[in-house]
Inverse folding.
């Protein structure tokens, strides 16, 4: 016979945490699980398999528009470059731009919104008016202007970095090419998250655990970033998964217009733009990058919806 206290202790140990409950609810969502599988495949293809393929910039004028073969699984394009390599390396740029920009926007949004909601009063009103003002300006216009300014500094810094570090000029140039886009998208993509975090903090700062922290004499900085902000991470995660596809789409739109990623780098947006020029004669140049692009966007959106439902505390009773 099991002792009652021991049985109760075992039951407590077996009880699920909120995180485990959310994970189980997420696994019940078939679309979210399928999305995780698709995203895993995309990451493996773009960041692992791509390294074993041909150089995406290797030009072969004697092999233009070649049909799919063992050497070129998806054929070649107008300059004889391998289509599969260009799609996977382009996916690296598109995904990295979205991930870095999202990370930048999440950090800024959480810090800005948390300070605004915690301090309150006139400072809160002023900070939110700044957000409202930035909301009134078209996002793409701000990104284009900010990127133009940052591009000038990035171009000037390439020579200095090469001279003082001895790094490869082509590598530094490729990296400097996309850093302005990282910053431009991230700096201007935090507005919605700031409002979400502000609302969360305003509700959390009235809770008993905050009053207990105040009574212990903890500093406002520690109370905010050690006790309150961690409780806003759930909504931030959901927002991030829904923001990443938006940044991928924005980068693709900018690259399609010739304002995003620049040569020798490429992205899915650039490949779609190039494929559109040969739509009537070589439709696969447009269709194949579009498939990768669309599959990633759909998977991220479905995963974001699944995480939103899984992290909803009202679902814990289901």
């Amino acid at each position: 016979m099991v002792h009652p206290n021991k049985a109760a202790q075992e039951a407590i140990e077996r009880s699920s945490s909120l995180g485990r409950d959310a994970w189980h609810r997420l696994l019940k969502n078939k679309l979210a699980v399928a999305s995780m599988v698709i995203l895993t495949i995309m990451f493996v293809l773009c960041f692992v398999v791509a390294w074993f393929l041909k150089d995406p910039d290797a030009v072969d004028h004697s092999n233009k528009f070649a049909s799919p073969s063992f050497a070129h699984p998806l054929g070649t394009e107008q300059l004889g470059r391998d289509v599969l390599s260009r799609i996977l390396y382009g996916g690296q740029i598109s995904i990295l731009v979205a991930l870095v920009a999202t990370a930048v926007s999440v950090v800024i949004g959480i810090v800005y919104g948390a300070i605004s909601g915690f301090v309150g009063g006139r400072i809160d009103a002023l900070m939110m008016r700044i957000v409202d003002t930035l909301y009134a300006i078209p996002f793409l216009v701000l990104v284009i202007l900010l990127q133009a300014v940052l591009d000038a500094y990035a171009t000037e810094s390439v020579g200095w970095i090469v001279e003082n570090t001895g790094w490869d000029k082509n590598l530094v140039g490729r990296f400097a090419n996309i850093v302005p886009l990282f910053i431009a998208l991230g700096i201007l993509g935090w507005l919605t998250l700031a409002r979400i975090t502000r609302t969360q903090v305003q509700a959390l700062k009235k809770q008993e655990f905050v009053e207990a922290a105040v009574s212990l004499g903890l500093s406002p900085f520690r109370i905010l970033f050690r006790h309150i902000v961690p409780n806003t991470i759930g909504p931030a995660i959901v927002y991030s998964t829904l923001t990443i596809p938006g940044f991928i789409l924005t980068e693709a739109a900018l690259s399609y217009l010739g304002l995003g990623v620049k040569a020798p780098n490429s992205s899915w947006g650039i490949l779609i733009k190039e494929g559109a020029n040969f739509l009537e004669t070589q439709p696969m140049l447009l269709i194949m990058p579009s498939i990768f692009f669309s599959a990633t966007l759909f998977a991220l959106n479905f995963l974001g919806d699944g995480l939103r439902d899984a992290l909803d505390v009202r679902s814990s009773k289901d």
Q: What stands out?
A: Residues 8-15 have pLDDT under 50 and may be disordered. Residues 83-119 form the longest helix (37 residues). The CA atoms of residues 117 and 201 lie 5 Å apart.
